Amino acid sequence: MNPDASTLALASIEFDLSAIEEGQSVTILWRGLPVFVRHRTQKEIDEAKAVPMSDLKDPATDEERTKPGHEQWLIMIANCTHLGCVPVGESGEYDGWFCPCHGSVYDTAGRIRKGPAPKNLVLPPYDFISDTLVQIG
Ligand code: FES
User: Fold this and answer.
1) What are the Cα distances from residue 11, in Å, to 1, 50, 76, 81?
2) What is the pLDDT of residues 71-118, one digit of tens each?
3) Closest residue (by CA) to atom 1 of ligand 1?
4) Can you state the percent helix, strand and coil of the chain, rounding each to 5?
5) CA of 58 to the centre of ligand 1 (A)
6) How many angstroms separate the alpha carbon of residue 17 from the centre of ligand 1?
7) Which end of the chain is more exposed for a tag (fewer CB within 10 A), N or C?
8) Cα separations (Å) of 37 from 55, 111, 115?
9) Which domains are seen in the chain, by residue range?
10) How much distance in Å is there from the Cα of 132 to the middle of ligand 1?
11) Is residue 86 within 8 Å of 105, Cβ to Cβ?
12) Ligand 1 pocket, mutate which of 86, 101, 113 (most atoms under 8 A from CB)
């Protein structure tokens, strides 16, 4: 059975990034899920790249969590991988996200650094259509 056009339309969305300034983050909805879109600063990118893999509970490089040529953009499903709360952005000791439900701390690549969450924040499927337009899904 093939999905009809309205189902396909919901399966992917296009999002214009041009209004999100460096250092800002927004939360959008995709298939009923909240998704973080963060325009990282160079400092945040540098911090993420400097972390040794041996420090990570769920090892992943910054390059694996972003798209080549668009490393300033971090796009992730906004549910804590512990029990699904939505973490608070630009907070926590790694300048990433802090989940107040049970204290999980994520870094500026959305990788789990402390607390009970077992995994990094999940990346949705997405691609850049242009420098300012991204398709999620
Ligand atoms: S749901 Fe985030 S720490 Fe428990």
Assistant:
1) 16, 35, 16, 22
2) 999 999 999 999 999 999 999 999 999 999 999 999 999 999 999 999
3) 83
4) 15, 30, 55
5) 16
6) 28
7) N
8) 25, 15, 23
9) 17-136 (2.102.10.10)
10) 32
11) no
12) 101
Question: Residues with Cβ within 6 A of ligand 1?
Answer: 80, 82-85, 99, 101-104, 115-117
90 CB-near residues (< 8 Å, 6+ apart): 25, 96, 97
Residue type, position 60, single letter? A
Contacts 24+ apart (CB under 8 A), 34-37: 34/77, 34/78, 34/79, 34/86, 35/75, 35/76, 35/77, 35/78, 35/124, 35/136, 36/74, 36/75, 36/76, 36/77, 36/78, 36/89, 36/97, 36/110, 36/121, 37/73, 37/74, 37/75, 37/134
Read off the tokens for 84.
């699904």
Q: Which residues are catalytic?
A: 102
Q: Tell me which residue has its CA closest to atom 3 in ligand 1.
A: 102
pLDDT at 46 over 70: yes
Whether the CB-CB separation of 23 and 39 falls below 8 Å is answered with yes
